[in-house]
Amino acid sequence: MKSNPEKEETFVPFHLPFGPQHPASGHFYGSVKVDGEEVVELEPYPGYLHRGLEKLMEYRTHIQNSVLVDRICVLEPFSNEMGYVNVVEKIAGIEAPERAQSIRTIMAELGRILSHITWIAIVSLALGLDSGARIALGDREGILRLNEVATGGRIYPCYFIPGGVRRDLPEGFEEKTLEELDYLKSQLNLYDSLIFRNETFVTRMSGVGIFNAKEAIALGATGPNLRGCGVESDVRKDEPYAAYPRVNFRVMTMKEGDAYSRVLCRRGEIAESISILRQLLQDTPKGKFRIKMTTRTPKGNAYFCCEAARGELCFHMVSDGTDKPYRVKVRGPSFSHTLSEFPYLARGAQIADIPAIYWSLDPCPPDMDR
Amino acid sequence: MEKLRPKAMIKSIHEARAWSLWVVNYFNSCGFIELFPWLGSGYDMERFGIRVVGSPRHADVLIVAGYITQKAVKRVRRIYDQMPSPKYAMALGSCCMTGGMYWDSYSTVKRIDEYVPVDVWVLGCPPRPENVGHGLMMLMKKIKGGFQGH
Amino acid sequence: MSEEIISSLKSEFADSILKVFLEDKKILVTVKKEGFYDVLSSLKGMGFDHLSDVTCIDYIKEQEFEIFYHLWAHKKKLRVSVKVRIPRDSSSIRSVTDLWTGAQIHERENHEMFGVNFPGNPDLSPLFLEDWEEIPPLRKDFDTRKFVRRKYYGEE
Amino acid sequence: MGMMATFRSIVKRLRGILKPLVISRYLTTKPMTLRFPEESLESVQGYRGRHLLEPEKCIGCGICVSVCPNNAIELVEFMGQRYPQIHLGKCCFCALCAEYCPRNALKMTRLATISIFDRPSAVYGPEELSKLL
Asked: Domain limits of chain A?
């Protein structure tokens, strides 16, 4: 610590609440011990959105759980459904039909773009760039409209179900999606000039919240936060699932490991997701979109990982032969972002950088508390 | 207040209150996502004079935007106490009315109106932005009609 | 790749490993409670540097907890799950925070939700629940519906 | 050399100020804001809104009661037969009841503007369910 010695015995840390009702903290209370402008220690106090979902899942059948499970991460419901549905199919030993797999991948990638655009809005609101935030909030409506057309639900689609998807894509969905993707591709340039290459955004984000690859791996970082330090790890490439083997895309990695490189990783991922969607929408295989599955799953346990927008989302389910899971453990990506990386990065930072570091990790508090 | 001022003035006070609702910046769970069109440029609630303010001291309306956990209900109640009266509360979604999705969860509060008197319930999980707008219109009509709030 | 790891594990820890097998590109290791820490530290040496999850499962009929450590090797692109069984009542198992710093919060959550004690973990204070007097909620003998009826709906 | 450095920093400052002005193209395009009560983003065909019950098809089997994750549906007596009564304050609009109804008696409509002042008006009995108010 840089605090001078003669102040040592009179130094009383001042607790600054980065509290639950803070415009940039989103229901996560961090008690920040501060020495002047510099953060000495940040203690996370999560739990404001803890509903005990893992306990509730033990009382509901698999079909009811597939509706409950996309409430885990509010900003990106599709990846939770993808994880839960695949782990149930793994235990039951069945495989969703080809068409269902590519529909699931299409909706998961749309969910990833939606989650990244929502993150662009929140991070520019946290740093005060309001015009970019308002436009990003307005752009979400296009993808929400696609969600509504395909699945019937705006924010919570309740669309994936063990054995496939609940209904087929309506006709004309491909053209509408391609149109929307062209619009989003052009909006990316607008975001570049408004937010990503904005003078204040760059100076506030670069050189802040730095950790190298070794520290990031030790802390349990995954997803764009780990790719920001140069480690090429993406579950879609390492353990391909659904229709990802048929798709080729580039894993975006940066080297510096500071807040700005994580931002650029996410920005690159939007462009990659758009190209993935274009490849998927060319040839969605025909055929059944759902197969009948018995409600009971055999005894056994399974572990499935998928790549959510924030990182590695893993489901570990134990089934005891009834139609209700015996135990489901969800490893949300934000669990390690907020509780082990953020306190590590906040040590030694300035107070003004706390929101910038916090939102460069893109945490989702309901995903952390479950 | 009724005795001292002529009727026309009282009516205009209600009208002025209805058209200048200030919402405290505490959006806690799923309903917060459906307020984006209202905060942003989708429906833009500034057209109705509804503004988001940071501190409860300046706010009139507390929007309870979803399920409330046992830990968060203390903060919600404290924020509601800090708001100057006349103040109103609006509840989004079914989770604060009857526990909704988490009716058997050990850590969420089942009825929010045990802690915060709610004036308008907006149903939906989460409610559509049009439904939230409908709720705001109903709250404004209720205030214009002379509802004093709490 | 995974066959060498399985054979080296078998040779090195013949006594403390009960079962090692490969199941659709994942290595599953069942370990006795005594030798579990050496197996984990040797796995970390082999390049399994990412601890993705510490899962605790409550088998109330056999009065045992089962703890899973899910590891992932970034360079080898391989996943290993290590399974340990510990008695349910005086459940305590050595903390692996010195191997992976990210494990501290996983163990803290399992301590709050199951009551498993992790000696060596720097901070096991409550994480999600505030002033909670009941037994740890995720255990099988805690019935959340009975608790909710008593506390929120007022029926006994 | 100082001249070039200051010149370059001036250019950098100017570019930083002028670049966000690209937003001025929004002056000419149609505003994104919808005037709420008149214009609004209507829900699409197939959106999961409020339920609609067809009493003649319903056989009172109670499958919807068991499949609902939130216990929002009960069977109540109405004109001699048992029909579902849905408490919209508990419902999560997931349409599992509509999907698993053997007689397709329960469907989801596009109507989603349901906001009320008091608690009891959230309970929709069989007669309210069968009429689209």
From this structure: 5-369
User: Cα(A213)–Cα(A225) distance, rounded to whole angstroms?
Assistant: 10
Asked if omega into B86 is within 30° of 0 (cis), the reply is yes
pLDDT digits (tens, 9 = 90+) for A325-364: 999 999 999 999 999 999 999 998 998 899 899 999 998 8
Please indicate whether, in this complex, the C-beta atoms of A336 and C105 are within 8 angstroms of each other.
yes
Residue B80, chain A, CB below 8 Å: the answer is no
Cβ(B89)–Cβ(B128) under 8 Å? no
HSE (side-chain half, CA atoms, 13 Å) at B63? 31
Structure tokens at A261: 């490189």
Q: What is the Cα–Cα distance from B32 to B39, expressed in whole angstroms?
A: 10
Closest chain B residue to C153 measured between Cα atoms? B110
Residues β-bridged to residue B92 = B122
Q: Is residue B51 packed enough to be buried (19+ CB in 10 Å), middle (13-18) or exposed (0-12)?
A: middle
Measured CA to CA, the distance from residue A143 to residue A236 in angstroms comes to 22
Distance CA A297, CA A90 (A): 10
Domain range list for chain B: 7-144
Alpha-carbon radius of gyration of chain A: 21
What residue type is C155 in one-letter code? Answer: E
The distance from CA A41 to its chain's CA centroid, rounded to whole angstroms, is 26
- Taken in order D121, D127, D130, D133, the sign of the CA dihedral is negative
Q: Do B106 and C153 touch (CB under 8 A)?
A: no
Checking if the pLDDT of A295 tops 70, the result is yes
- In the prediction, which pLDDT does A4 show? 58
Provide the CATH topology of domain B7-144.
Rossmann fold (3.40.50)
Domain ranges in chain C are 2-151
CA dist., res. B86 & res. A15, Å (int): 33
D20 touches chain A (CB under 8 A): yes
User: Domains of chain D by range and CATH?
Assistant: 51-130 (3.30.70.3270)
- The 3-state DSSP class for residue A343 equals helix
pTM of the model as a whole: 0.93
Measure C16 CA to nearest chain A CA, in Å. 23
Pairing of the two strands B61-64 and B88-92? parallel
Per-residue pLDDT of chain D in tens (133 residues, 90 and over written 9): 678 888 888 888 888 778 778 778 888 888 888 888 888 888 888 899 899 999 899 998 989 999 999 999 999 998 889 999 999 999 999 999 999 999 999 999 988 888 899 889 899 988 888 888 6
- Torsion, CA C105, CA C111, CA C116, CA C120, rounded to 10: 50
- Per-residue pLDDT tens over the stretch D2-36: 788 888 888 888 887 787 787 788 888 888 888 88
CATH number for the region A5-369 comes to 1.10.645.10
In angstroms, the separation between the Cα of residue D88 and the nearest Cα of chain B is: 7
- Residue pair B120/D103 in contact (Cβ under 8 Å)? The answer is no
C100: closest chain A residue by CA: A218
Q: Does A369 touch chain C (CB under 8 A)?
A: yes
Burial letters A105-139, b for 16+ CB under 10 A, else e: bbbbbbbbbbbbbbbbbbbbbbbebeebbbbbbbb
Q: ipTM for the complex? A: 0.91
- Residue B75: count other Cβ atoms within 10 Å of its Cβ: 18
Give the three-state DSSP class for A294. Answer: coil
Q: D115 near B121, Cβ under 8 Å?
A: yes
Residues of B in contact with D114 (CB under 8 A): 122-124, 127, 131
What architecture is the C2-151 domain classified under in CATH? 2-Layer Sandwich (3.30)
Residues in chain D closer than 8 A to A158 (CB atoms)? 48, 94-95
Look at residues C96, C94, C101, C86 and name the one whose alpha carbon lies nearest to residue C119: C94
How far apart, in whole angstroms, are the C-alpha atoms of residue A277 and residue A267? 16
**Taking CB atoms and an 8 Å cutoff, what residues of chain B touch A153?**
none
